[in-house]
Amino acid sequence: MTITAGFAASVRAPGPVFGTWMGTPHPIIAETISQTGLDFVIADGEHGAVSPHALLEILPAADRYSMPIVYRVAYNRPEYIRAAFDSGVAGVLVPMVNSAEQAAAAVAAAKYPPHGSRGMGAWRASNYYQDGANYIVRADDETVVILQVETVEAVRNVNAIAAVPGIDVLYLGPGDLALSQGVEPGLLHPSLLESYKTVVSAARQNGIKTGIDVASIEFMKEYASIGIELFSFRSDHFYILDGGRRAASQMRDCFQESVDSRSIQI
């Protein structure tokens, strides 16, 4: 089973899927973050520095450790979605989908006819056209389409959005949804929780998963209890800062303990 097919199967099966973010467009970051034991990595092309061209280096590095890469495109535009899939990503994350029409446009860009309008040219995804014919047959089933629900408008239209064929995950964006509702981002506000429940209900009725970006690990219990099953948490930037700060603190503490110990002995 290919990396993309395995990821698609895990997303469509019951049960949790855990991932993280990558905002630094470098193969060394991709190679190291792919060894975390997580289920997927989102390479961020909207609020991160990962351009479509950066996928050319990131994907081979992640492939070494069989890590599925989901690419968040900058905009819901077919050229971004098609280019990502042609490069060989396991899925796309499409931001700011606010209506069924916008959802249908994203799905169409991701799927080959008759289910969409994706064109010929899956250069890397088809192993440089060596597997072209077979790839076209498999691609729609082996790639994942994740749409972000992150505004009041999107929640209001979520039943129509979720009913669009070809969506695998409705992915909640807590930060932007909080701003859209006029509440403070980063908190588990009651109005946000009600919106999450609305999205989960619409997703369930259409046999698809709900995902969310986790601001605090403590929120996961609440999210799991309402039926969310796909999670992303933190990013490469966080791991570097958090690990570096803890190392600095530990070194200083250890040194000070040594100084204090010598002072006592004297």
Automatic annotation (TrEMBL):
Report whether Zinc-finger shows up as a keyword of the record. Answer: no
One GO MF term? aldehyde-lyase activity
Q: Per the database record, which ranges form the HpcH/HpaI aldolase/citrate lyase domain? A: 19-210
Any one cellular-component term (Gene Ontology): cytoplasm
Q: Which InterPro entries match?
A: Aldolase/citrate-lyase_domain, HpcH-HpaI_aldolase, Pyrv/PenolPyrv_kinase-like_dom, Pyrv_kinase-like_dom_sf
Q: Which UniProt keywords are given for this protein, alphabetically ordered?
A: Lyase, Metal-binding
Give yes or no: UniProt keyword Membrane.
Answer: no
Q: Which family does it belong to?
A: Belongs to the HpcH/HpaI aldolase family.
Please report the name of this protein according to its UniProt entry.
HpcH/HpaI aldolase/citrate lyase domain-containing protein
